[in-house]
Amino acid sequence: MVKKRSDVYSVEIYGTKDLHKTEIEDEEEKHKDQKGNKKKKKAEDLKKELDLDDHRLSTSELEMKYGTSIDKGLSSARAAEILARDGPNALTPPKATPEIVKFLKQMIGGFSILLWIGAGFSWISFGIQLAQGVDSAFDNLYLGVVLALVVILTGIFAYYQEAKSTNIMASFSKMIPQQALVLRDAEKKELPADQLVVGDIVEIKGGDRIPADIRLIFTQGCKVDNSSLTGESEPQSRSCDFSHENPLETRNIAFYSTTCVEGTATGIVINTGDRTIIGRIASLASGVGNEKTPIAIEIEHFVYLVAGVAISIGVLFFIISVSMRYKILDSIIFLIGIIVANVPEGLLATVTVSLSLTAKRMAKKNCLVKNLEAVETLGSTSIICSDKTGTLTQNRMTVAHLWFDNQIYSADTSEDQTTQPFDQSSPSWTALSKIVTLCNRAEFRPGQENLPIMKRVVVGDASETALLKFSEVILGDVMSIRAQNRKVAEIPFNSTNKFQLSIHETDDPHDKRFLLVMKGAPERILERCSTIMINGKEEPLDSEKAEAFQTAYMELGGMGERVLGFCHLYLPEKEFPESFQFDTDSMNFPTSSLCFVGLLSMIDPPRSTVPDAVSKCRSAGIKVIMVTGDHPITAKAIAKSVGIISATSETVEDIAKRLNIPVERVNRREATAAVVNGMELKDMSSEQLDAILREHAEIVFARTSPQQKLIIVEGCQRQGAVVAVTGDGVNDSPALKKADIGIAMGIAGSDAAKNAADMVLLDDNFASIVTGVEEGRLIFDNLKKTIAYTLTKNIAELCPFLIYIIASIPMPIGTITILFIDLGTDIIPSVALAYEKAESDIMNRRPRNKRRDRLVNQQLAVYSYLQIGIMQSVGAFVTYFTVYAEQGFLPSTLLGVRVNWESNAINDFEDSYGQQWTHYQRMYLQWTGYTAFFVSITIQQVADLIIRKTRRNSIFRQGLFRNKVIWVGIFSQIGIALILTYGLGHVTALNFTPLRFQYWFVAVPFAILIWVYDEIRKLLIRRHPGSWWDKNMYY
Amino acid sequence: MQVITAFHGLILLFYLVFYGFLAALFTFTMWVMLQTLSSDIPKYRDRISSPGLMISPKPDTALEFYFNRSDSQSYSEYVTTLQNFLESYNDSKQSQNIDCTRGKIFDQSDAAVKKACRFNLSDLGQCSGKEDANFGYSKGTPCVLVKMNRIIGLKPEGEPHIQCTPKEEGMVNINYFPPNGAMDLMYFPYYGKSLHAHYLQPLVAVQLAITPNGTKEEIAIECKILGSPNLKNQDDRDKFLGRIAFKVQMSE
């Protein structure tokens, strides 16, 4: 685990202190782990390269270092040399497994190897029989071909499914800019970006993608969008100044794959290709192993189980048949039959189809699943590490509170607000609303009059947008109000003033005074005020009122909200006549002794669906952890408002404050909640992190860098949790990969994040994850049902072989017939079970325990194999014996006849009535027997399908007709059986014969018995929970 | 430990009861099914609408006769088989059988007791074993008996007779007993093992007089039932339906 952490630190650059620390750690690690491995080496390499000091160097030092000239650039020859040394400026794709290897893997994975063995044996016996001149030799050839076809087709299907999940590197390579403007041989040239080398002088302009990591040497109004790298959504300005020790923070470096939003810049290429920051993250993301999904583990477990049963029964009966003096060749043919009967050929494909059906259903609910198996992983999720911005919140600033007339008012922050309910009768509000409306540069894009206000696109920054929408909701057409109050002068917001000011004519034609309105940081605004408006009247701002302001300011700030102060002044008409020329540079107007009107506070409010979703998670036993880059206070406020921190729980700090004792003295166990700062997290050992994750039920990680997510994810995984992680930035991709299920944001997410993720959330909404969880849990339950359904008939297919070997009766069912059940009649019904509704509220139980709650457990196997399967066999054998008896072979005459029955040379085989049969006539009767056996299994599988609809509840409670697809399944099953029997009954190779209609009903009583028995089983389970019966019979 | 054994004991008991019940159920349904069957004739005979042909003696090796006419050991098995086979056709065994009207279907559907028609061994002439205990094997004229499979209720139409043709001319001369290889209609129909206990199916003896040319050669012979429209002798899949092919190779 320590090793993994060093991986992270090597990318996460917080200046030299960290690097030093990692070095020490790695040093320690070397002592611990003498062997070392590739991964660690890679991590060390990364770390070394991060000793980037180019941002500290002066231009001439850079020229020296890279042997280049700012005026002339590199010479073409020198560039070619470096290119030869460093390779092209492109990310090396990871060593992809060749497609053919992937394909072959599918061909031998799962049950395939068993079926290949079966096919191999078939061909061997074909060869032997052909040499012996046996007529029926070709049957074995066909069987081998069919088995091979089954493997190849299911293999192609699986390969196709795998190929659909895209490779993470694909998007990294897509990010490479096509062309770059380079200075070489003192000439500006357009070059393909992959030809860039270290030392090249490149020019970039607004809209370009940065072609490599570049140290800027000349800039003009340059801003870059680093969101794909750091997750910061605001464009960052870039200059030539060395502004920070940390290369990631300093302004004079622009990173590969980020975008230049505006301005122009010139710079020296300092890193290319895989040595760029993004290249390192890419290699880290691909270095993070893809863990096996829980469902993959379950299916593997199931395959081992079934294969184990198949092989042991096969070998056992091979030995039995050899010792019963069967010929070796015959014994081998028996072995093939046993394998084919035991292997549910269609099941893996069915599982894939079921998963993709669920994936489709989830896509409709805005969860786009890229990796099919992730569908179920989501269902077994026990911890969700969620982003805040955009996932839990609406990702837009909204006015949440107002303070005027010494009172705090709450505003509606829901997504679709149309009115504001707070008391708007006070004249102070009228004044405040005027300031809010006028002192605002944001504007709606034209042509959106028909859209709801909250959905309209606004030109302006986040706060101004919030204020514009707020006033539009309350006052109506803001633009016309602004037009009526013509703006005569304006000072936009800047970071030194920390206020924004504008001067307007008033809309009152009798009032010729100008109105000065101002907004800004509350304390700055208050400084400039001498009076304060209370109920529309200006009152002097005494210390008592200032105190009230402070209290309100602290309270709003304490809620994690961004607070703005508003003030105004009507300029005296005499000093500022209508013709007065306002000069904003010389400020020929008063900016102090203003009248303070009120405060507005804004927050990115939680999505309205989120609190409900969080409480659903809680009842579903899923821990929701917030991981955000935001300030701890804001993070905590949002966590509280959505219920991640519940109303009653306290953090250590809260307890300390309540009891008025130092934080150190608080009993940590009393605190159910914790807010962990990224800075604290950095200094924590993994044991400390584990302790926090273990001891606190409600955790918020604030001020975390996206890379720290990986540490948090690993911490959660150490607790044995199945972790879902949301993310959007490029540097979230290692965490997304590491997580059991990575969830990328569809709207805000970068391509790399989407590629690293297993799932994309189309609406960026946390609530969608919860619906996904629900679907995931449902599919796990339904796959259980599918598998139970499929496994049952394997016994009914296997018993005939065993009895055939032991009692030497004519073969009851053919190998090809078995394949028609497994891959024909049973496919649609087993998929139909995926549509089954949940039996009870699946969101009220704890997440599945990976180790205990297996997909296929002993109870399921035993109940399917030894109970329902045996009942099916009995029913099918009754049909078989009936067919033979009614044709003249009473059951007693069938015992021990195998050798003569199958002999080609005996063509006067006598039945119970003295009639004589040729070999072909007997074979034809045998095929009729196959068909009868097949039909009986099909009929009983209908009952099996119905009973599998539920595992605990009565079928009648679940509703026999609620899942219509089940009926499609039943009709398809019977339809396919009818077609095979009557439609293809004359194709000899398929071994089906038209069957008398009454034989379809012989097994019906047994089908009913299966249903009744299962209802009794379920009744006893419900009546006696925890009893012996419950423990053994509930799967 | 005790808990575990009690637990396992319960499982054992459960399966004992469960399988006991299933076994009883199986037995019961089989019994019910068997009650619906007649002991005289099977419910359906559609799977054997037309009879197959078979020969006696039947060599183990896929209907191929290999023998040396001067070595009695080489054909003794065939001779014994024939003798045993014809045992039931001995007059002593046929005392209860009646002489029926030749050339006519012997319909006894109304009769409670079904009589069997007498088949005189003498009809097989030189192949009856009476004149030549070695059935011609020592003389180079081996006999093969052709019989038609018994099928309950089968009433051949026309004048069914067996005709055998060698694949190549000049190696063998074929004689039939009874003459023309005729199968008399009076032996039909058959009423089943329980009603028609003494029934003897008609036989046609084929005497293969192997010419010097044919000696030491492998002679392929195919016999078919002809002369009856409802007895099929040509089916692509069933090589024994109304026909039979065998090989004979005689050395000296």
Automatic annotation (TrEMBL), chain A:
GO cellular component, one term: actin cytoskeleton
GO BP annotations listed: intracellular potassium ion homeostasis; intracellular sodium ion homeostasis; potassium ion import across plasma membrane; sodium ion export across plasma membrane
A UniProt-annotated Pfam family: Cation_ATPase_N
Keyword Electron transport listed: no
Chief subcellular location: membrane
GO MF terms, alphabetically ordered: ATP binding; ATP hydrolysis activity; metal ion binding; P-type potassium:proton transporter activity; P-type sodium:potassium-exchanging transporter activity
Entry membrane topology: Multi-pass membrane protein
Domain Cation-transporting P-type ATPase N-terminal: 53-127
Name this polypeptide is given: Sodium/potassium-transporting ATPase subunit alpha
Positions of transmembrane segments: 108-129, 141-160, 302-326, 332-355, 787-807, 813-835, 860-883, 927-946, 966-985, 997-1013
Gene that this sequence comes from: ATP12A
Family named by the database record: Belongs to the cation transport ATPase (P-type) (TC 3.A.3) family. Type IIC subfamily.
Keywords: ATP-binding, Hydrogen ion transport, Ion transport, Magnesium, Membrane, Metal-binding, Nucleotide-binding, Phosphoprotein, Potassium, Potassium transport, Translocase, Transmembrane, Transmembrane helix, Transport
PANTHER family, per database record: POTASSIUM-TRANSPORTING ATPASE ALPHA CHAIN 2 (PTHR43294:SF1), SODIUM/POTASSIUM-TRANSPORTING ATPASE SUBUNIT ALPHA (PTHR43294)
Stored InterPro entries: ATPase_P-typ_cation-transptr_C, ATPase_P-typ_cation-transptr_N, ATPase_P-typ_cyto_dom_N, ATPase_P-typ_P_site, ATPase_P-typ_TM_dom_sf, ATPase_P-typ_transduc_dom_A_sf, ATPase_P-type_domA, Cation_transp_ATPase_P-type
Region described as Disordered: 20-46
Subcellular location: Cell membrane; Membrane
Record organism: Serinus canaria
Keyword Transport listed: yes
Domain of life: Eukaryota
Automatic annotation (TrEMBL), chain B:
A family per Pfam: Na_K-ATPase
Gene3D superfamilies: 1.20.5.170, Na, k-atpase alpha subunit
Any Gene Ontology biological process: sodium ion export across plasma membrane
Main subcellular localisation: membrane
Membrane topology: Single-pass type II membrane protein
Localization per Swiss-Prot or TrEMBL: Cell membrane; Membrane
Record field: transmembrane: 12-34
Domain of life: Eukaryota
GO cellular component: cytoplasm; sodium:potassium-exchanging ATPase complex; sperm flagellum
GO molecular function: ATPase activator activity; ATPase binding; protein-macromolecule adaptor activity; transporter activator activity
Keyword annotations: Cell membrane, Disulfide bond, Glycoprotein, Ion transport, Membrane, Potassium, Potassium transport, Signal-anchor, Sodium, Sodium transport, Sodium/potassium transport, Transmembrane, Transmembrane helix, Transport
Family label: Belongs to the X(+)/potassium ATPases subunit beta family.
Function: This is the non-catalytic component of the active enzyme, which catalyzes the hydrolysis of ATP coupled with the exchange of Na(+) and K(+) ions across the plasma membrane. The exact function of the beta-3 subunit is not known.
Entry protein name: Sodium/potassium-transporting ATPase subunit beta
Species name: Serinus canaria
Name of the encoding gene: ATP1B3
